[in-house]
Amino acid sequence: MRLLERLRKEWFMIGIVLAIAGAKLKPSIGVNGGPLKPEITVSYIAVATIFFNSGLSLKTEFTDGRLHASACVFCSDFNQGSWWK
């Protein structure tokens, strides 16, 4: 029972170790043009996932007022900047 509790507590570290071991055993999976397509997954999907997770961790008090205002300012600046080009 104690081992199962330890595995549940350290699941992320165990996953990292398994991913590193898998990369050491079969590096051809992660090369450019390989099945994982790291040129796409790292540059777009990983960055989007990081921003999505950080957005989920925002407190609701912060998101109520400031985030809406900053999104409006960003959109208006972006739209006006594109018109002048």
UniProtKB/TrEMBL annotation:
GO cellular component terms, alphabetically, are: plasma membrane
Q: Where is the signal peptide?
A: none
Q: Which domain of life is it from?
A: Eukaryota
Q: What family does this belong to? A: Belongs to the bile acid:sodium symporter (BASS) (TC 2.A.28) family.
Q: What's this protein's name?
A: Sodium/bile acid cotransporter 7 isoform X2
The organism encoding this protein is Carlito syrichta (Philippine tarsier)
Q: What is the lineage of its organism?
A: Eukaryota, Metazoa, Chordata, Craniata, Vertebrata
